[in-house]
Write a structure and sequence with these properties.
The protein has about 60 residues and is α+β, with helices and mostly antiparallel strands. It has one domain (about 5-60): Ribosomal protein L30/L7 (Ribosomal Protein L30, Chain: A). It contains 2 helices and 3 strands. It has helices at about 20-30, 45-50, and strands at about 5-10, 35-40, 55-60. The chain is globular and about 40 Å long.
Length: about 60
């Protein structure tokens, strides 16, 4: 199996009152609620979503 680069992403601020596109990015990353953590594959699309809502997230490379 190829060694895929992964990112660990955690939602640290509430989505309440955010724009629809920002909420869609958070859902697209697989985050459901505050303090929820997921591991996603490191792709340009995922990096773009993280960059758009970086003020709501904490993330690190795994």
């Amino acid at each position: 199996m190829a060694d895929k680069k992964m990112l660990k992403v955690k939602l640290v601020k509430s989505m309440y009152g955010r724009g629809k596109k920002h909420m869609a990015c958070v859902k697209g990353l697989g985050l459901r609620r505050m303090h929820h953590t997921v591991e996603v594959e490191d792709t340009p699309a995922v990096r773009g979503m993280i960059n758009k809502v970086n003020y709501l997230l904490e993330w690190e490379q795994v």
